Amino acid sequence: MAVRIVSVIVPCRHERDHIEAFCRSVAAQTLPEGWALEVLVADGQSEDGTRERLAAWCLSDPRFIMLDNPGRIVSCGLNRCIERARGEFIVRLDVHTVYAPDYIAQCLATWQSTGADNVGGPWRAEGASGAQGTVQRAIAAAFQSRWVAGGALSRDLAYEGEVDTVYLGSWPRQTFQRFGGFDETLVRNQDDEHNLRIHRGGGRIWQSARIRSTYFPRASTADVFRQYRQYGYWKPFVMQKHGQAAALRHLVPGVFVGVLSLWLVLLFMLSLWATWGIGLETIPLQAVACAVLALCTAQVLLYAGAVGIVCLLIARQKGMDLLPHLPRVIAAYHFGYGLGSIRGWFDALVRGRPDPAFGRLTR
Known about the structure:
The chain is α/β, with parallel strands linked by helices and 363 residues long. Among the domains are: 1-95, Spore Coat Polysaccharide Biosynthesis Protein SpsA, Chain A (Alpha-Beta Complex); 249-352, no CATH class. The protein has twelve helices and ten strands. A five-stranded mixed sheet has the order 3-2-1-4-8. Strands 6-9-7 form a three-stranded mixed sheet. Strands 5-10 form a two-stranded antiparallel ribbon. Strand 1 (4-12), helix 1 and strand 2 form a beta-alpha-beta unit. The longest helix has 36 residues, at 283-318. It is globular and about 85 Å long. 38% of the residues are buried.
């Protein structure tokens, strides 16, 4: 019986402390009978010792191949791997995720049973144990909450069925022949854009709870803010390309922050007029000032109240020690994404091009 190949594709950059553990976990994957593994790792010109450690691993296990990714970003690395892949089935993995021993086998089984164009498992996040990992656990708990994530099915650990996007993903080779590779102009959201392309082309994306992995998010609120500001920034370029959002939840943070910013700008202008004595003594302008202040206050109070309730719900489920950290973690997710979206729309519609400053990865 001829051996069939499954190709694992991995973009990486500056992963010295994680690359060897990752390679060990991939090497330990159990495959169905008749399948063989090849692992293609595209390194984005790491300068921290990642390349040396990865090269040594490749010498010890010929199934692993290191490729150069001069573009440095994820989309370029994925495409370099796809170009070299020999497998009829292709599985994307991430260095900062831990995988069940049958992860690849379950991807294959789900694809064979559904015939979907992209299959994957739910996006499950965890933080480090102990007091030092409390903030990371709060970040992971907020990440998993459907109230923070806008009801994304990819965060539902029990969901089985069709979705608009899926964590990481795995594809029969024909998917890339039919829908193309990843958009190399996108530093972030290249997977969402590719999945949107699949949907618009009549393809199907399937999530299975049997495909299990655990993702370890950023460990500080500031890192989460920067990460989600970058996610938010690149989303308008995806929407502009296709003329639609992949899902309504992608628009909400930008609209929320935009409206709040509008109230604050109006209040600032009205305060200047009052300071300079330009007409605020008139009844119409006084009414406008009161209305703007009331709307701004209402929006802030409603958001604060909703966040407070969500924090209590999460803390009751995940641990009350997370409660002091959750408000700023949730705000980092929402305001980071919202502010990034506003800047992204400005650059997409006004400047007509992305800002290179948002091209640097945040990890």
